[in-house]
Amino acid sequence: MPLLYQLGLGLPAWQSGLLMMPAAAAAMGMKFISSRVLARYGYRQVLIVNTVMIGLIVGLFSLVIPATPIVLIVLLGLSLGFFNSLQFSSMNSMAYADIDTPDSSMASTLASSLQQMSMSFGLACGSLITGWFLGDLPQTDHMAVTTALHHAFLTLGGLTILSSLSFWTLSSKDGESVSRGNLREAE
């Protein structure tokens, strides 16, 4: 997104940075409701729908052009931050479902390592795809750069939607010990 804002739209770095703030604000807001969403819908449904939503939102960034109102760009950033935060909360908390207390330390280490590896692979993949579309385009040709970035957003959005298939293997009850733990104790 910073590439789109700076190279594609021609915004200075400080404005590009400000446009990244809505995603962070939405991510913090999502933390307050993620446990209720997971308790209500369960991990399988949340992860499938949420992954598709992230892919769609990433794809929507392909519609951002210099004439796009800032309000719409901010709304896209808010949406992406909201759904990304739900994804991280869901996947991180599911890592501890059905783990016995003595094994929780090892599960924490493993989950943290895998999260860092997956983020690194995702960033590398996104960078390679973007680099492939950008090719040898001069950064001064804002229209060509914007078009290349739009192709990258569409590709990454499609790959994200495709990755939602991995969550179909989850059972509808997977993770209930975490998401509905308090509800079970009340019953």
How many strands? Answer: 0
Low-confidence stretches: 182-187
Helix/sheet category: mainly alpha
Give Rg in angstroms: 19 Å
**Number of helical stretches of at least 4 residues:** 9
Beta-strand content estimate = under 5%
**Number of domains as seen in the coordinates:** 1
Can you tell me about this structure?
- The chain has 187 residues and is mainly alpha-helical.
- The chain is 74% helix and 0% strand.
- It has one domain (2-95, 102-176).
- The protein contains 9 helices and no strands.
- Residues 182-187 have low confidence and may be disordered.
Keywords:
187 residues; mainly alpha; disordered C terminus
What's the quick description here?
The chain is mainly α and 187 residues long. It contains 9 helices and no strands.
